[in-house]
């Protein structure tokens, strides 16, 4: 992590609302990605919200990437975009239920009365 000009956050970054067990334990981030988010996430969040002014070339490029995600080059930029997508996008929920538009349109027939007749 020392090969970057990006500032470390003033505090460790966690998202206890979306990732209460940690980034890596969520199954979406690797241990290295979790370390990047914890160390630099506070700075990246501050830059995104406009609370911090970019001071280095990397931070200036990071702010540009927030407006144009396709220009992401560094691991930090890509992991922040991944975090944004997972934390802020609506999650798709797949349910196993019918919406009532099945192809089988035959009505259900109740044969319980005929069974009673046969038993007599």
TrEMBL record:
InterPro entries: DUF413. Residues 96-120 are annotated as: Disordered. Transmembrane segments: none annotated. Residues 107-120 have a biased composition (Acidic residues). NCBIfam families: PRK11027.1-2. Belongs to the MaoP family. This is Macrodomain Ori protein.
């Amino acid at each position: 992590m020392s090969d970057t000009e990006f500032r470390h956050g003033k505090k460790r970054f966690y998202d206890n609302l979306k990732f209460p067990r940690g980034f890596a334990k969520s199954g979406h981030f690797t241990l290295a990605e979790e370390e990047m988010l914890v160390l630099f996430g506070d700075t990246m969040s501050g830059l995104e919200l406009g609370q911090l002014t970019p001071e280095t070339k990397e931070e200036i490029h990071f702010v540009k990437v927030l407006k144009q995600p396709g220009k992401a080059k560094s691991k930090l930029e890509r992991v922040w975009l991944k975090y944004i997508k997972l934390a802020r996008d609506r999650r798709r929920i797949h349910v196993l239920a019918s919406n009532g538009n099945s192809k089988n349109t035959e009505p259900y027939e109740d044969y319980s009365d005929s069974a009673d007749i046969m038993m007599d």
